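--- STAGE predict ---
source: upstream dedup step, 1 unique chain passed
mode: sequence only
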Amino acid sequence: MSRAKDLAKKNALRARRKRRVRGSIFGTAEKPRVTIFKSNKYLSAQAVNDVEGVTLAAVSSQTMGLKVSKENAVKVAAQFAENLKSAGIETVVFDRNGYLYHGVVAAFADALRENGIKL
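--- STAGE serialize ---
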């Protein structure tokens, strides 16, 4: 199988997981949805109020000057927890955005919990 076909299959499987997970997750102003995006270089996250379609808080490793890794995911999560607390948010719903709960995604979620955000 060629690399292009492998990549297309990988993206299609992630899209299916994303649709399946998003069918049961919904964010409100009191308990927003935290969605994560990771590329090969960077990691970003945002808290979304799905009722109004508004982003309440956001963070990106690119603006912090960090590449994507488990260690840097912990730093990004610490900054994001500060942003959430300054916005008055203590509990959130975690949307892994179709990614497997492993590696960088799991490190980010665990770091959020360690910084006082309830998932």
